[in-house]
């Protein structure tokens, strides 16, 4: 048995769910225009290489302080069912079944929240979720702090190594599928790194190292 790790945004999904979330939250009046513009600016600055995403993630988590876990879980479920569930790439679904048939353990490795990731894992029948989770106090309110290691960059590698160790699997027997250069720390330690619709930097790195590059297509537009 090996482990097949899968990134979520722009890999399993054809979209970036974080960007969709910001627009959806603004449209529904959950955040102000200023907050939406600020969040979008952080996402854009990250994609342009001007700000470390870990810093942006910690900043976003801090804004949750004092908010209800139950309410955020409810809003995430509605968002997933109406905006995200239809966005899985057809090639991603085929790859999942290929690894499942081979007896591999399927694991989601993402910077997304636990609330979103658990819904994805349920629908795709994944064995485990490695993601960003948030600390909650006894009253069910977010403290504004992450729970455990932030799952991004080197943090993703830490999560992947711990997962492989728990399963008694060597990383050389693992695969990882991602679109992002920020996931290079994980790509470098698995035996089968695969770039899925890679960003410009990852495409260059994949070509340099001889890593496989795949096109998983896009979902059919809704009727």
UniProtKB/TrEMBL annotation:
Gene3D superfamilies: HAD superfamily/HAD-like, SG protein - dephosphorylation function
Cross-referenced SUPFAM superfamilies: HAD-like (SSF56784)
GO molecular function: hydrolase activity; metal ion binding
Keyword Metal-binding on entry: yes
Domain of life, source organism: Bacteria
Keyword Flavoprotein carried by entry: no
One Pfam family, short name: HAD
Transmembrane segments: none
Keywords noted in UniProt: Hydrolase, Magnesium, Metal-binding
Protein known as: Haloacid dehalogenase
Protein's organism: Melittangium boletus DSM 14713
